[in-house]
Request: fold
Amino acid sequence: MLIDSNPDQFSATVSHTTRKPRQGEKEGVAYHFVSPAVFSEMIATDRFIEHTLFSGNYYGTSKDTASRQKLQRSTALLDIDVEGVKTIVESGSLDTRCVFIKPPSLKTLEDRLRGRETETEESIQKRLAQAKDELQYAETSGVYDIVITNDDLGKAYEELEAFAFGSHR
Reply:
């Protein structure tokens, strides 16, 4: 929504992943889908700003993607997990503002994951366990500039927009 409302100011990065595309996902739009061998080669040649293993698949944001957005004078919005945030913040190589968008509860997250009908039971349980750790980290680490609860999409968007444009208190 933030990108759609402000396309001249913000753009989304398209991450690389080793996971299989879900129904309706297109190469280069949702993700760049690559083999584990290609992903490993990209790690070995230092082509990622950040990368992580999540639920048995690798995900990463390439340096090329970020460079293209910088040339376009667009603020890049990265949709990454806590490990990716840690990597970027610890590197100090990027000027970052970090937002954590959390579900109202773990039960709500579980309902949302099940509602997708794309996850196995094992995958859901792994995601819930990881989410519990990530929620704890987001609330206590001091890394995130703001934590937004996504219980009402309109309200959550208003908070994000206020933060993005500097009017968040």
